[in-house]
Amino acid sequence: MRAGRFLSFEGIDGAGKSSHIEWLAGWLRARGREVLVTREPGGTELAERLRELVLHQGMDALTEALLVFAARRDHLVTRIEPALAAGAVVLCDRFTDATFAYQGAGRGFDLGVLATLESWVQQGRQPDLTVWFDLPPAVAAARRAAVRAPDRFESQDEAFFERVRAGYARRAEADPGRFAILDAAATPEAVRVQLEAVLESRGPW
Ligand code: TYD
């Protein structure tokens, strides 16, 4: 049995990561890998219910951080860890870097508290690879405006997303071996080429 691999995908809203995750799942399955595609907040029945609250219900920053980590704990214990133990590749649309970027940098919530929650919830577990779809907030905002009604995060102003982007940059600087940074302002085809180069360098799969 091949060893499980844990990949997360990050970026500000409108970065376009979802279609690339679907493509990657197909790419891995074509190579005979078992793949779990999942997302945060969410990925389990309980965590999806928490997601609804976090995305649509007003609450203070600590409540938001606790709910996001509660969802993560359930997801990790009941789905991600069993899938990794069974040798699957787990493709997770957002993980804890999003909490540091959105709750930490975006909302200005205490990073030390987030680090404590991270260690309680994850017990040292981190993605093996995190693909950050990076692009300027103005480009992402134009893309979002074209497609859908905004949730509690998507309706934030450009300054919020500048902080979120800076939050991702700090996480990437702190753990450069885990992060691969893609220029997500490029066309979808050009982003895919970058993603393929990352896969090439991180194989075998
Ligand atoms: P997103 O992943 O963009 O899904 P969709 O494409 O369906 O909108 O939305 C999730 C939102 O949740 C996004 O705005 C970021 C936010 N979020 C946090 O604030 N903290 C977190 O820890 C996570 C995982 C997500």
Automatic annotation (TrEMBL):
Primary enzyme class: transferase
Under Enzyme Commission nomenclature, its number is 2.7.4.9
NCBIfam families, sorted:
DTMP_kinase
Keyword terms of this UniProt record: ATP-binding, Kinase, Nucleotide biosynthesis, Nucleotide-binding, Transferase
> What HAMAP family does the record point to?
Thymidylate_kinase
**A biological process term (GO) from this entry:** dUDP biosynthetic process
Which reaction is catalysed here?
Answer: dTMP + ATP = dTDP + ADP
Protein family per UniProt: Belongs to the thymidylate kinase family.
Which positions in this protein are listed as binding ATP?
Answer: G11, I12, D13, G14, A15, G16, K17, S18
**Protein name, entry field:** Thymidylate kinase
Can you list the GO cellular component terms from the UniProt entry? cytosol
Where would I find the Thymidylate kinase-like domain in this sequence? Answer: 9-192
Task: Note whether Protein biosynthesis occurs among the keywords.
Answer: no
Where are the bilayer-spanning segments?
A: none
Known function: Phosphorylation of dTMP to form dTDP in both de novo and salvage pathways of dTTP synthesis.
Q: Which GO MF terms does the UniProt record name?
A: ATP binding; dTMP kinase activity
> What InterPro entries is this protein classified in?
P-loop_NTPase, Thymidylate_kin-like_dom, Thymidylate_kinase
Please tell me whether the keyword ATP-binding is annotated for this protein: yes
